[in-house]
Amino acid sequence: MPEAAPSFSPGLEGVVAAKSRLCQIDGTQGKLYYLGYAIEDLAEHSSFEEVCFLLWRERLPRARELEELRGQLQEYRQDCRDLFDFVGRFPHTARPMDMLRTCVSWLGCRDPHPGDASGEANFRRAVAVTAHFPTAVAAFHRFREKQSPVPPHARLSHAANFLYMLTGKQPSDLAARVMDVALILHADHEMNASTFASLVTASTMSDLYSALTTGVGTLKGPLHGGANEAVVQMLEKIGSVENVESYLSEAFAQKKKIMGFGHRVYKTYDPRARIFKRYADELSRADGDRRFFEINERIEELMQKRVGSHGIYPNVDFYSGIVYRSLGVASDLFTPIFSIARAAGWTAHVLESWQKNRIYRPASVYEGPGPRAYVPLDER
Ligand code: ACO
């Protein structure tokens, strides 16, 4: 029997690239689970640190284990002097995602035992890198604002510490909780583009830092994590609720995508978008600035009429940007916040994949010319 020609799936749609115990999506029902726990329950009752433990250790921690992980994150977070020096040397015009990508690479150069590929060494690296991401992003932002970096606070959570290091002020309980939930919602998401890209790098038995550098670089694009910033740019362009209809008509006429809508897996409302929407509503009521929330709601209403029946609904990025904006975060830090959270998922997937590794080496369909004679330079 001749071997069947492999079929080509643009964008690898429908291709199963891994088996994993970590994250499950039901794109028809709009459900998301980490290790079987519904995202709504985790957002309501858990913390980002607890979700990190869940993803890394594949079970919920006991109280003592959670305290231990908090302590480890804190210890790595405190080790930030040379990180400040490194981040302080970036051009202030650098894009924060480019800085972060380079920073992860530098963290690899700073590892005292780069050749230690043991499971325990890689677990320690996962904790350390996750601890350092918020510090790098916050310090870079302060340097470019011509302010000194703020060392981490010994008693604040991962999420609250990020806001503290960014502003130099202890965040309100509401702001700290909203950031914590945002990190929980973004911590993992099955075989998304950046996780897949990280896994490809990891599958060559490269190293964790290289895999994460790949992850950050892949997340940056506006079709993936960069959409949260693009949504707010779109809202600024639209300006008012009255302009939404004409903006959408023009965008559809030009076959432009509406940022924050559509998903490869969800063909209904992304459950994370629902949670972000609730916080966007609450925060905009609290600060009395409802303009962006109302524009978003109008876009949602009109998009539902236009393309809801095609399975195009708000994704996680549609309301997250306006939530971060309400917290006073600069718009080019939205995607870095996504990275701060996804560090947990990327590292968890890489550690899991190394338990049973096989190099990724797919195929392509050749479309070029057939075999032919080489033409010497002077005969062309
Ligand atoms: N606005 C308008 N139409 C859309 C949108 C959108 N946001 N998304 C998809 N469509 C339409 C496409 O035009 C296409 O229509 P057609 O079949 O008539 O040509 C159909 O839906 C399928 O779209 P694809 O782009 O082929 O779907 P794919 O699965 O490849 O892409 C993606 C998914 C990249 C998320 C896409 O929906 C998109 O570009 N959305 C906007 C960017 C965005 O919000 N990205 C964040 C995604 S979530 C995340 O990564 C964190």
Unreliable stretches, pLDDT < 50, 5 or more residues?
Answer: none
- Beta strands, count: 3
Number of domains: 2
Rounded to the nearest angstrom, the radius of gyration is: 22 Å
Structure at a glance:
Helix content is 57%, strand content 3%.
Which labels suit this protein?
mainly alpha, Citrate Synthase, domain 1, globular, 3 strands, Cytochrome p450-Terp, domain 2, 380 residues, binds acetyl coenzyme *A, 16 helices, three-stranded antiparallel β-sheet
Question: Care to describe what's here?
Answer:
There is one protein chain. The two termini are 43 Å apart. The chain is an all-alpha fold. It is globular and about 70 Å long. It has a 3-stranded antiparallel β-sheet. Helix 8 (173-186) packs across helix 16 (334-353). Helix content is 57%, strand content 3%. The chain is built from 16 helices and 3 strands. It has 2 domains: 20-221 and 332-356, Citrate Synthase, domain 1, CATH 1.10.580.10; 227-326, Cytochrome P450-Terp, domain 2 (Cytochrome p450-Terp, domain 2, Orthogonal Bundle), CATH 1.10.230. The structure holds acetyl coenzyme *A (ACO). Residues 11, 223-225, 227, 257-264, 307, 312, 315-317 line the site of acetyl coenzyme *A.
